[in-house]
Input
Amino acid sequence: MYRLIPLLFCALLATPVLATDPGRVGFVNADRVMRESAPALRVQKKIEKEFEKRDQELQRVAKQLQTMQDTLEKNSVTMAESERRTRDREFNDLNRDFQRRRREYLEDRNQRQNEEMSGVLERANKAIKQVAETEKFDLIVQEAVYFNPRIDITDKVIKALADPSSAK
Output
């Protein structure tokens, strides 16, 4: 049996190594696609418009809080103790309400953005597949520690998403 091992090893070395084609590999920067593609930009504008009134209201309350805080800091020394406590309480109540509304706003906005962006992600995946099939890629990678810029097809995917007839 021990005589067979060197023979098997020699046989393996003598066997011609199959020349394998590594195939065509491409890279897509998914973050860039989700930031710069036409559908992603449309979603961002839609979300901004949808939440514009709530955002303006939050900004108004933030300015009101800042004014209240400035007034308290400036006049606290000259105010009567009862008035200062009343103003402090009003400030704290408004601030608590502001923080709650801001948290709800951010949660609602993030949820809507995630809902809308999932559709963009589907379209982007279809566009990636379309580019890969058209240009005969064997593998498309979306995350990499390093990639050579010559295999980056992100611009092609963004361009494919800009065409309303593609990736639907």
Observations:
- The domain at 15-162 is CATH 3.30.910.20 (Protein Binding, DinI Protein; Chain A).
- The helical segments are 4-14, 30-36, 38-50, 52-75, 81-134, 154-162.
